[in-house]
Amino acid sequence: MKIEYVDGNILKKSFIGAANCLEKNKEIVNALNVFPVPDGDTGTNMSLTMQSAIKQIRTLETDNIDKIVSAASNGSLMGARGNSGVILSQLFRGFAKELAGAEKINTSILANAFKAGSDTAYKAVMKPIEGTILTVARECAEMAINISKKETDIVEFMRLVIKHGEETLSKTPDMLPVLKQAGVVDAGGKGLIMILTGALEALTGKEETIIEETIARDDSLHTYTETDEDIKYGYCTEFIINNSSLESELFRDEIIGYGDSMLVVGGENIIKVHIHTNDPGEVLQKALQYGELIDIKIDNMRYQHRNNDFNDAATSNKEEVIMENKKYSFITVSMGEGLANVFKDLNVDYVIAGGQTMNPSTEDILNAVDNVKGENIIILPNNSNIILAATQAKELSSKRVEVLPTKTIPQGIAAVVAFDEELNIEENMENMKDAIEVVKTGQVTFSVRDTVIDEKEIKKDDIMGIYDGDIKIIGNDIQDVAFELVKTMVADENGLVTIFYGDEMTEDDAIELANKIEEELEDFDIEIINGGQPLYYYLISVE
């Protein structure tokens, strides 16, 4: 079967095939986590990002290539989860820009689009690392350029690109020592090969499987309520302006007087709008001047509030938190009710439910930014795999947003404790950066596979103590591993150990561990907090 040109209909099927292949194989990608910890989520993040792109594509009633790739770019941008998802969205962004205006695609055009995608992704990462998805994307793109000079059959072209991508993927352990130690190839690169393979399968006529949307959300960990009288603008209005060449900033200026809680972000030929207003009709009329409207959603917030009050009155005594205009607002990412309550007690405004096993998307973080009222908004990702999505949300928001690159929950807590409302934003950011540099974080979890790391032999279900990016302790007993881990973490200048126990541990377990630590470290203060976090028996902070 020879195909010399791809039209919009085939391209659409190829995107869907790519998403299907990744969804079916995401656990294979997840299993390639460098550490054998139970939170490998690269496959899940990339699949959810792809599903967001496909959701946008499915709204189209056209086979126009420009609109299809723009939908994929915008969908992946807003749905990007984790570092791998953000990089994937940038690959699509460059791909879409190169294909703008194309009526059909041959191997030469496709090769240039691959190259543009790779270039855009590299530019999006501050310090690109070879041996990752970036390397696989670049090598595929360079091979595509070479092949396209002679090969006109897109099917054969794709087979050769994928073959070279697989060869590059197999070499990633030689580029990144940490991959070689773990005995795995790069997970993001593997995910990209799955995407290309799925696209090829669709080209050759393999049966399409419909993917249902599986993006999980948990809004139970943040609280945002108002009294009926406090709702100044009663209608929460959301929509997308499709086919718009208008700059998002210009449209934001046009509707700024119609309400508050406004979020206007632009992508490839679309503008996503969220506003609380008393006149949604007028806002929609303004928007109609610039393009067709899709995904329109209008909620009467006063009505919802009255019903919620009535329904909750007999069953709930939830504390009411009224969001007011203020100088500073904090947004943090956390998993576990106990940890959420810790941040709430520290006056964090909005807790996004997420973390190791479910990274929030760029859109999730943007929604949080929209729901807080601070003149200065500080985001604490508390996970290295969420920092890129948080940074992307900052770039898309019209508000003044700062991202403090916290990589652990203890770092996030230390940052909030170091915050001083009397200082300006620059002074606070500096102080909080200093605070997160001195806090030490330990984690106690279990291994999900047999492996060898740093000449340590690890068996499936072994208990591991992790500190400073290394597996320090391996054993069979949770309490013993936690105790030995603390001993490796403490130094003469430290004086406080905080134990956050997870959802599989009890307070008695934590007290037993604390008593053992006190016997060993007589001059240390020991605190115990019910974190309720999944997968990690203990999170341990040393200061």
Automatic annotation (TrEMBL):
DhaL domain ranges (all copies): 9-201
GO BP annotations, alphabetical order: glycerol metabolic process
InterPro entries per UniProt: DegV_domain_contain, DhaL_dom, DhaL_dom_sf, FakA-like_C, FakA-like_M, YloV-like
GO MF annotations in UniProt: glycerone kinase activity
Top-level taxon of origin: Bacteria
Pfam families associated with the record: Dak2, FakA-like_C, FakA-like_M
PANTHER family: DEGV DOMAIN-CONTAINING PROTEIN DR_1986-RELATED, PHOSPHATASE PROTEIN
Protein name: DhaL domain-containing protein
Lineage: Bacteria, Bacillati, Bacillota, Clostridia, Eubacteriales
